[in-house]
Amino acid sequence: MNICLIMDNPETPHHPVIGVALQKLSQAHTVRLLDVRSSTGEQAIAQEKAFPLADLYLLKSHAPQALEVAHYLEQQRATVVNSWASSVACQDRVLMAERMKEANLPWPQTTFFPSLEHLLSQSLSTLTFPLIIKSHYSHRGDLVGKIDSAEELQALAPRWNNEPVVIQAFAASDGWDIKLWVIDQQIFAARRRTPLTPGASKEDIPLSAQELPEEWVHITRAIGHVFDLRLYGVDLLMSEHGPVIVDVNSFPGFRGVPGADNALVALVEDLLSSAESAS
């Protein structure tokens, strides 16, 4: 059967998880790449039209043009994982906050501003510091940081003044992020020092399935249901009030996650089998 990976990073075919999974899949299937990094959405769609519709598309890109291609392909009744709608919801932090609130999941209070300039024009005395500031849309090189004062916030203006942003309530934690990765129903997990700590180690300390509290598992599976995700990553931190979700990533790289390549291959085979049965 035919598999197409939509990507925007030239390193993806050599990735220690994604690349290995693609090699394993190519032993039984035709695997091709749709690299959109130098294309507009229209150009990428035209490029894809030169090929027969694949049996399965893997959307390993958050670039706007990749999302345009995915949306077009779904209109042609192609199967895209994760779907266009699911991927968009994981990039739009305002939409994500709305979904989390509707599902009663532990997500920080989030307020949107059409630009940093607009935020700075408001009364800064009404803000509670520290706070977390992020770009409205998650993208490579976006704005994410902990702000401790009005002066720190104002110092962002030269670079980020026109950036649409959200601010979130800061949740004090125990200094660790809980990293959870999901491939279909399989959950992988690790601890990592929070990046908000200067000089924090990026080393992951793996957690076994037996070490995962039921609450973490429930939250992680609920996110997959709410956002309709088959491949995703979740970042949690432990606050004094319990776990708080701080990020959801549609189709992460699963780098350093033991067994992720085999789990990814198994999911793709299952999806292809389902597609073949339905045809």
TrEMBL record:
The signal peptide stretch is none
- Keyword annotations from UniProtKB, A to Z: ATP-binding, Nucleotide-binding
Domain ATP-grasp span(s) in chain numbering: 97-276
Q: What is this protein called?
A: ATP-grasp domain-containing protein
Source organism (scientific name):
Reticulibacter mediterranei
Gene Ontology terms for molecular function: ATP binding; ligase activity, forming carbon-nitrogen bonds; metal ion binding
Alphabetized Gene3D superfamilies for the sequence: ATP-grasp fold, A domain, ATP-grasp fold, B domain
Q: Which GO terms describe its cellular component?
A: cytoplasm
Q: Name one Pfam family in it.
A: RimK
